[in-house]
Amino acid sequence: MPGxxxxxxxxxxxxxxxxxxxNLTVVSVELKGAAGExxxxxxxxxxxxxxxxxxxxxxxxxxxxxxxPERVSLLLVRSERVFARVRALALLSRxxxxxxxxxxxxxxxGFSADAVRHSLLRMRELGYLDDRAFAESWVASRMSMKxxxxxxxxxxxxxxxxARALAEEVVAAGCSFTEELECARRLSEGLSPSAAIRMLTHxxxxxxxxxxxxxxxxGKRLEGPEE
Length: 227
What we know:
It contains ten helices and four strands.
């Protein structure tokens, strides 16, 4: 298993894989992984393959069992789907993900398109994948820091796999012009107009917000210090 990762697509990364069209006899079965979640099945021709224990438990495979190549291929497909599902659950337990972000991470770990697709379907069925809920929570969290503008929030959602239309909608609702302007006022306090422009632009504030904040700054300068 790559990196000794029990949630990797082990069935598709095997050595001495069985080939040909003849049936092969199982010579040994060995549990692998810290919790025995994977099973290494050695065949009489010297090859072996690895199944997730969940798939293995349903098949009744033991030493002396004859397996044909077609059955082995099917078992490997089923097994990889389970490994992908387990890995998806582990990733989601650490942090919320968009569907696209989760798919990207699963592909990086070597899972096939089929395994990724089935994993995402299962996560949606379980209610663990909701791009809108992710986007709203992420924007609310960033807004609580009061250090980024709407443009930065929008780009941040896109990088995390949120669709453009949904990103626009969530940012419009979660980062109103009034809220963004108030944040720009606080961040610009004590700065020169040129410094304020650079800072607000760097932090992804929208153009009309920057213009409004600068207009207020110039108005205060014209009014002069209070008596």
